[in-house]
Write a structure and sequence with these properties.
13-stranded antiparallel sheet, mainly beta, 3-stranded antiparallel sheet, 8% helix
């Protein structure tokens, strides 16, 4: 099926964007993120989120969000009232999760850079599969499986990650390093992906029960009306972040912007996607380009989807420790026949 640009289908002023998804080596002396940390003050603490039990009515005046100088920025004007405006934060995030494939195979190009203009490029292959309720794996507590394998550069080619996300238990996380020729179990959530500004937690899709949610007053992102949802990870989610804010456009429920705060309450990252990069694939809308920025180090990583297979029939054999050790993930042509180049 042909991919359609969201810009062609936008209703209301402006357009669209965001992510669903992505991955050390001795890059630029331990990667672009090793560039000298900026000396600017930490971003101000944001306004308190609106209580879930009291959703803000459309048209109601809302306080602005504090800027880095501490003054309040003007709140975006609300649209005309509609039934959608009474959605709770959890309902909004549920719709975000509904806008995703049941499985996918992707090849991604990553470009990381720093403030002095140095860049490093890499390519990865990513397989992901989620499990619906009433399946054998879901009943066994498995929510999803993710495998990430480096294709380039050559010095880390074959390095692979496997994450098995579980419902009521910590995730199983494994890494294979060709230089060591063995699979190791380790905590990968804060592991940098090939020296980029992404870690493993950023690329493994979150589940609904991984956080608690609260609505923030709506805002405009690139002239597009957005719901704003604060997600506060639960203790069981074992997140490196204390909270994140998602700016979700109102037509396809794609996050246009995601902001991340660390455990000390400092805003440290921001993810954005160009509106023009949003495409439709078999009824699912996603960005084919996204950029993650480290706000304190002033570094960035841009991810571009070069190849996508939506909803392939992925068996569990692709998500095993043995598969991590193979020099190349061989996917049958029948599986790749639906491959699309955005």
């Amino acid at each position: 099926m042909r991919a359609h640009s969201a810009k062609q289908r936008r209703r209301g002023p402006g357009a669209l964007a965001a992510l669903a998804a992505l991955l050390g080596c001795a890059w630029l002396a331990h990667g672009p993120a090793a560039a000298q940390t900026g000396s600017g003050a930490a971003p101000a603490t944001p306004a308190e989120p609106q209580a879930e039990s009291e959703p803000q009515a459309a048209g109601e005046e809302a306080p602005g969000e504090p800027t880095s100088s501490g003054s309040a920025a003007p709140a975006a004007a609300a649209e005309d009232a509609s039934p959608e405006d009474s959605l709770t934060a959890r309902e909004i995030y549920t719709r975000v999760l509904d806008n995703r494939f049941g499985a996918s195979v992707q090849e991604l190009a990553l470009v990381s850079g720093d403030r002095v203009g140095r860049e490093q490029r890499s390519r990865v292959q990513m397989l992901w599969k989620r499990y619906e309720e009433k399946t054998e794996d879901r009943e066994g507590g498995i929510l999803s499986r993710t495998l990430v394998r480096y294709l380039e550069p050559n010095d880390i080619r074959g390095t692979s990650y496997l994450v098995i996300n579980k419902q009521d238990a910590p995730s199983d996380q494994f890494v294979y390093l060709p230089s060591m020729r063995r699979v190791r179990r380790m905590s990968l959530r804060s592991e940098s992906i090939a020296g980029t500004d992404l870690n493993v937690e950023d690329i493994v899709p979150r589940e609904l029960d991984d956080a608690e949610y609260a609505r923030i007053p709506d805002e405009l992102v690139e002239e597009t009306p957005c719901y704003v949802v604060q997600a506060t990870p639960t203790a069981e989610a074992d997140s490196d972040y204390s909270r994140f804010w998602l700016y979700v456009e109102k037509e396809h429920y794609v996050p246009l912007r995601i902001r991340y705060w660390d455990s000390g309450g400092v805003e440290i990252k921001e993810m954005r996607s160009p509106i023009e990069s949003i495409r439709e694939f078999e009824g699912i809308w996603l960005p084919v380009e996204s950029t993650m920025r480290q706000l304190l180090d002033d570094t960035y990583t841009t991810i571009v989807i070069d190849m996508l297979v939506p909803n392939p029939e992925l068996s569990e054999k692709y998500f095993t420790q043995r598969q991590l050790e193979s020099t190349k993930l061989r996917l049958p042509k029948s599986l790749l026949k639906g491959a699309q180049k955005p």
